[in-house]
Amino acid sequence: MNGEWPRDARVSEDDSELYDELIESSDSPFSGWEKNQLFIFAAAFGCEHGSRTALDGASHALFNWESLSDSQLWIIKSIVVKELEEPDVLDNGSKVDTITREFATGGINRLYRIYNSPSKGIFTQLTEEVVQKANI
Questions:
Q1: Strand partners for 71
Q2: N or C: which end of the chain has fewer CB within 10 A?
Q3: What is the pLDDT of residue 41?
Q4: CA dihedral of residues 100, 106, 112, 114 (deg, nearest 10)
Q5: Distance between alpha carbon 131 and the CA centroid of its chain, in Å?
Q6: Mean pLDDT in residue range 6-24
Q7: What SS3 class is residue 11?
Q8: d(C-alpha 79, C-alpha 85), whole Å
Q9: At CA 105, angle to CA 27 and CA 1, rounded to 5?
């Protein structure tokens, strides 16, 4: 990583609890995932749904940025370049961190609402979204 990245990806205490529940609950599709895996998924999900959310009290270190694989870093970089339409932003680690965390915040909250939706299960709703997106 280049360009002044913070050491950790930080989230609010409330969001940290959402991550914990989604990876620890046996009925969650994310059961057994690592926090950095769910964070990347939440960021991509948030980006796909335009759920960039302002950060509020990001005081909990969720994971260390250095723990990400090359594939995960490319996902993050793709999200940020897609959002800003300027590849030079990748030289600004602080900005990449902020934008990624904003999308992950929106994404994790949206995923959690779906997970707790009384009308449909998370698998059903996510499958419907995939099918609609694929025009199947």
A1: none
A2: C
A3: 93
A4: -120
A5: 21
A6: 93
A7: strand
A8: 10
A9: 110
Instruction: Give the SS3 label for residue 10.
Output: strand
Q: What is the 3-state secondary structure (H, E, C) of 34-95?
A: CHHHHHHHHHHHHHHCCCCCCCCCCCEEEEEHHHCCHHHHHHHHHHHHHHHCCHHHHHCHHH
Query: What type of residue sits at position 53?
Result: T
pLDDT of res. 110: 92
Q: Which two tokens stand for residue 100?
A: 């990624």
Q: How is residue 133 written in tokens?
A: 């997106």
> What pLDDT, on a 0 to 100 scale, did the predictor assign at position 134?
53
Q: Pull the structure tokens for residue 91.
A: 């030289």
